[in-house]
Amino acid sequence: MAGSPQTMAGKVLARTSGRDDLSPGDFITARIDVAMLHEAFAICAIQMKAAGIEKVWDPDKVIVILDHFFPAPSERHAQGHQAVRSLVEQLGITHFLGHEGICHQVLTERGLVRPGELVVGTDSHSTTYGALGAAGAGIGTTDMTYVLATGELWMQVPATIRFELIGEPGPGVTAKDIVLHIAGTYGVDVGQYRAIEFGGPVAARLGQSSRLTMANMGTELGAKFAMFEADAVTSAYLAERGVTAGGFGPDPGCEYEAVYEVDVSPLTPQIALPHSPGNVRSVAELEGTKVDQAFLGSCTNARADDLAIAAEVLRGRRVSPDTRLIVTPASRQVALDAARSGAIETLLEAGASITAPGCGACPGGHNGVLAGGEVCISSTNRNFRGRMGSPDAEVYLASPASVAAAAIEGRITDPRKYWKGRIQ
Amino acid sequence: MTSRERRLVFEGRVWVLGDDVNTDELAPFQTIGKSWEDARVTLLPSRPELPGLVEAGDLLVAGKNFGCGSSREMAVTNLQKLGFAGVVAESFARIFFRNCVANAFPALACPGVRGSVEEGSRLTMDLGAGSLSNAQGRLPLEPAPYSEHLLEILRAGGLMALLKEPGNGPVGGPT
What we know:
The complex is a heterodimer of chains A (about 425) and B (about 180). Chain A is an alpha/beta fold. Chain A contains 13 helices and 18 strands. Chain A has helices at about 10-15, 40-50, 75-90, 105-110, 140-150, 175-185, 200-205, 210-215, 230-240, 305-315, 330-340, 345-350, 400-410; strands spanning about 25-30, 35, 60-65, 95, 120, 135-140, 150-155, 160-165, 195-200, 225-230, 260-265, 270, 280, 295, 325, 355, 375-380, 395. In chain A, the strands form 5 sheets. Chain A has a 5-stranded parallel β-sheet with strand order 4-3-2-5-6, with helices on one face. A 5-stranded parallel β-sheet of chain A has the order 16-15-14-17-18, with helices on one face. In chain A, helix 6 (about 175-185) links the parallel strand 8 and strand 9. The longest helix of chain A has 16 residues, at about 75-90. Chain B starts with 8 loop residues before the first strand and ends in an 11-residue tail after the last helix. The interface of A and B includes residues 365 and 387 of A.
């Protein structure tokens, strides 16, 4: 007997639990399609071996990558990487992606995640895979060890809320501004214990990179999954990566706990003030706030198109001597694309520091950690106290255009002075 | 006492925190991998005196969205190391809650708790009964029920213990 119409999350969990009668609140055991681990692999592998388990449940479904601390900033981190490489060998992990960039970026740009799949990662921003119509969720290391051993994980079926994005975004307004607006309006726990679907005409016309930005920030809305329908945009993106995939969306007539209509037409560039991604205002309200550092990086906003926007803003201009611009491409592929397009050259000419791809300064690891009293405008996802270094530093979250504009003036400023591009 | 009889009732002195306490406060990234003594003093920068005052068996009461942020499990294990026996919050961030279950750290979501409990008072949390009480009796609050599914993991002493116990299949099935 077929069950009732399901949301995207419901469909994924019905398939992976083998049950077609799911309702929000049900506890299930789900079979995992893809398990992604970054440096935390060392913890999981050691925990697994300590439990007497010598191999993962399915080496073909496990992906390991080094991203948080590459290149190693200290001997201790180098030892951590050494341990990962050795355990990868011992446990027969075939999909070790080395240090190609930030996990979420590399998995998506290589077509390793497909619509409708259930993906878990040892990283909270695993909601990013929702940009491809997959159900991606972050989990801790003990949960992941359990997955590596059994291929299964307990889950509670979430209710789904839907954001219907309507209207016409104005010039200089990006996906980051839309999702910051949602965090500011509906709160950083609007998606708590829930799955989010982003839909409506604006979602349908967004390119893959913009969808990745918004699904990534689903974590900052508290969501378990943050999903876009897999459509022709998704199929084309995957086809370029040699993957054939059809569409994936909610069943007609499925039930949502709430549907929020978000009109993006009146939106201006948005910015989240310290120390919460939900503490959101219009960039114009912060005009003139001095910044010590501008950071363009992270799985949220450091793709080739983000670097291209920053380059457009900075072409023929200079980074203010009062600040510094640090650019950390999301992956080696992004860095290569940006080098070929000339964006890297433009950014270097303007005075930016370009670092190796990876997570870099976003979680306060290396390559741009903040001192007490410093202020940073950042294209990243999270501005908690202490996130990028000292607990006495302040982080403002904004779009790549706003970050680049602030780098020119050494102060927060409306990016539309320099860039009037349209959302892609 | 076998692991299956592990108790699910916890009584202790209460410390109270606010809303949106995040994983950068519970486990600052830069202290990961450092010694416990180095890490300890950096925890909870909004209440820097607290790590030095907590005694084994104390309970934590917090506002909404407790544990938001990263998937790092040290956010839970650091609270265990400080001596906390459990945490009651208006609501939890989902990964943090999962990590509590995985590590058999009692975590109860209970709307209204923050306004009902004073710092320094004593509180009893009963996960099995799904109740909170103080010296005067049961508090008129409704904690989110714990499914038998999750209680099984807690009784076993966490997910790893369950994985190691002979005869235990993967946790699963409807409750």
